[in-house]
Amino acid sequence: MDRVFQRLRNLDAYPKINEDFYSRTFSGGLITLISSIVMLFLFFSELRLYLHTVTETKLVVDTSRGGTLRINFDVTFPAVPCSVLTLDAMDISGEQHHDIKHDIVKKRIDAHGNVVAVRQDGIGGPQVSET
């Protein structure tokens, strides 16, 4: 048992001072040993967590109904007549939606970008007004 105590006294992680100026103690060696074990444990546990990949698949159904997404956009097509421009609203599955509130304001412009005429259309609906 004395040999174990002697080894703990000689265990020092940072012996930078001349041995004449300090004395090695059992408690100092014990603290060094315990802290080294804790550091090794933490290192290997973090390494294990880093190397272990977790694949989590989660499918959640959105049960909220009536939630709408407001989208405003401004697109200029300088060389296309307003009569051939349309907008189709569909979701990611390809299903078209006709029960949404929507309007398209088409502004006819000349070669210099000045507004010549304004027309408001509903998506998939008849023409609402023309100026």
How would you summarize this macromolecular structure in one to three sentences?
The chain folds into 2 domains: 2-51, no CATH class; 82-130, no CATH class.
Describe the structure.
By secondary structure, this protein is α+β, with helices and mostly antiparallel strands. It has two domains: 50 residues, no CATH class; 49 residues, no CATH class. The protein is built from two helices and three strands. The chain has a three-stranded antiparallel β-sheet with strand order 1-2-3, with no helix packed on it. A hairpin with a 5-residue loop joins strand 1 and strand 2. It is rod-shaped, with a radius of gyration of 38 Å. The C terminus is likely disordered.
| Beta-strand content estimate | 5-15%
Shape label: rod-shaped
Low-confidence stretches: 127-131
Class from secondary-structure proportions = alpha+beta
The amount of helix comes to 25-40%
Radius of gyration: 38 Å
Q: How many β strands by DSSP?
A: 3
H-E string? HHEEE
* Average residue pLDDT: 77
InterPro entries: Erv, Erv_N
Transmembrane segments: 21-44
Domain Endoplasmic reticulum vesicle transporter N-terminal: 8-97
Keywords: Membrane, Transmembrane, Transmembrane helix
